[in-house]
Amino acid sequence: MAYEHDLTVYIGRFQPFHLGHLALLQQGLQRGEQCVVVLGSCHQARTPRNPFTRDERIAMINLNLTPEEQARMVFVSMRDYYDDARWVAAVRREVGKIAAQGARIGLIGHFKDATSDYLRRFPGWNLMPQDRMGAIDAVHLRDALFQGKDDPEAALAVVAPHVPAGTLSFLRAWLALPFLLPLSEEWRTLRAYKAEWAMAPYPPVFTTVDAVLRCKDHVLLIQRGQAPGKGLFAVPGGFLEARETVYQSAVRELREETHLGLLESDLAQALRNVAVFDHPDRSQRGRIITHAHYFELDSDELPEVRGGDDAASAQWVTIADLAAMEDRFHDDHFHMLDHFLGITDAGAGYLTT
Fold first, then answer.
1. How many Cβ atoms from other residues are within 10 Å of residue 336's Cβ?
2. Domain 5-180 falls in which CATH fold?
């Protein structure tokens, strides 16, 4: 069979894999000899926005394909960089590892809203836009699953018209797993949080502050004591107070959450950099822009710390251990650390076949 492309690329999060996804994937398989599925939001902690792991999403997709179709598939795992240029470069690099020199590459997708603009950022690839299949939205499917935690069959009845048979079978088993309850509770917390601001005249934009504190080969982390992200690692931080500068708020939050006893002058002398993290999807709570302050302590000993305020615990973690903890961080806090500490190399995901 003569194919239009040597390789077709389909980028998505597939949380979960629904009929709209299947229709696009089938287009990719029909028009390309090989189809590369780029799985977004990998290496993330389980959250209401990312409830399914990389392996679970691959399983969902494969359950809906024939053995012949599976043999023509390659999956690429891609982390969220919260940096569009870096993300595009990473996707190109990983696809380039699969494509032969001069390969004809097609890009499958549809323009849902502003979040689909990434499809225009791959010049040289043949963009093949497809019509959207109905009004299927993965957000609503996840809402149905979390809302129906006490009655899985009722939840599946809501989801069933929008997902293929393989996904439905997967979800029936997935709903019996123990992590559904904490995910559902976090989903309810986030929903209540957003409802409090639903009557605001404009969509609210919040400002927060964070503190990345390095000493020797360690960095100071907390474990969150409350939802969202209860139990996940984060850097100390919180919301900007009305009568404080971002620096003053960062220092206050650092002291409140870790009981760090350093003098104000020592912290001021240790400040090395400030960076703004403002990706629209960086927080599940909504539009939150943070000012992250990077400190390097000139000390041979790690200062004593203990958790306080919203932090269940505070601890010094070896920087060399951070990469293995990526899927245990809240929101984009791993990427804040990566920005200042260079944890990852220029690479992105890794191949799974």
1. 23
2. Rossmann fold (3.40.50)
**Contact between 234 and 330 (Cβ < 8 Å):** yes
What is the tens place of the pLDDT at every residue in 79-137? 999 998 999 999 999 999 999 999 999 999 887 766 678 888 999 999 988 777 667 88
Sorted by where each begins, the domain ranges of the chain are 5-180, 205-341
Q: How far apart are CA 291 and CA 306, in angstroms?
A: 23
Q: Are the C-beta atoms of residues 305 and 256 closer than 8 Å to each other?
A: no
pTM given for the model: 0.90
Residue with tokens 């690099």: 93
- Residues 252, 291: Cα–Cα separation, whole Å: 14
CA distance 348 to 76: 9
Could you tell me the sign of the dihedral formed by the alpha carbons of 191, 168, 64, 129, in that order?
negative
Note the pLDDT tens digit of each residue in 14-35: 999 999 999 999 999 999 999 9
Q: What is 205-341's CATH number?
A: 3.90.79.10
